[in-house]
Amino acid sequence: MAGSVFTSALEGMKHVKSENGEMLTKHFLDVCKQLLPVLDKFGAALSPVKSDVANNISRLETKYSSNPSEFNLLYSLVRPEIEAKTAKSSSSCTNALLWLTRGMDYLVELFRNLHDNPDWPLSKACTEAYNKTLKKWHNWIASSGFSVGIKLAPERKKFMEIIGETADLTSDIQKFCTNFSPLLEENHKFLDSVGMDNLKA
After folding, report:
1. Around Cβ 110, how many Cβ atoms within 10 Å?
2. What pLDDT, in 10s, does the model give residues 3-40?
3. Fold of 7-193
4. What's the distance, Cα to Cα, between the start and end of the chain in Å?
């Protein structure tokens, strides 16, 4: 049994928190990485989202790898930048965590739409998720690019066949949305506490 495209991410989520309930850098990034192949299944429709997510994971991983013990906890990547007042720089880890979290918000919302609205075409699920999550942070150019990309979304039935070699797909989607949302919420709370959650593109 191969499991669904979410199997690895769901397994990974069990290890994201330390014994003290703190978010662990490597495990959080690993879960996000497990979702890149899911983004691939959308074809060209979500390639901007995929490249953004992949770049942000890569920036955070590079920093983590420079000192795994110092940066073991996810927010330890951000705190030095807040203190040094470099957090708002477009190349900061803070910025990467913010946009990675937003990209993941979008994915959760998209799959929630697919789960809750079986009659929606994929393009509608993508657009509604975008309007609810990323749109308010994007400038006109990014929004237009997104609208154009969505027209390339595959047909829903075909897409669901590609991602679902298993009967458990529906319950996996629900578990993914239910289990991943609180982790993203925690990131937003932390970013809000350091004045970074409302940063626009």
Report:
1. 25
2. 778 888 999 999 999 999 999 999 999 999 999 988 88
3. Glycolipid transfer protein, GLTP (1.10.3520)
4. 42
Percentage of the chain modeled with pLDDT above 90: 72
Q: How many Å apart are CA 44 and CA 47, to the nearest integer?
A: 5
* Token pair 């990131």 in the structure block, residue: 187
Residue environment code for 79-107, b if the CB has 16+ CB neighbours within 10 A, otherwise e? ebbbeeeebeeeebbbbbbbbbbbbbbbb
In angstroms, what CA-CA distances link 12 with 27, 79, 153?
7, 25, 28
Tokens of 68: 């795994």
pLDDT tens digits, 147-198: 888 888 899 998 988 887 566 888 999 999 999 999 999 999 999 999 999 9
Query: Residue 153: left (phi > 0), alpha (psi -120 to 50), or beta?
Result: beta
Six-digit token string for 27: 């495990």
Three-state DSSP state, 17: strand
In this structure, what token pair is assigned to residue 102?
Answer: 């937003």
- Exposed, middle or buried, 155 (CB in 10 Å: 0-12/13-18/19+)? exposed
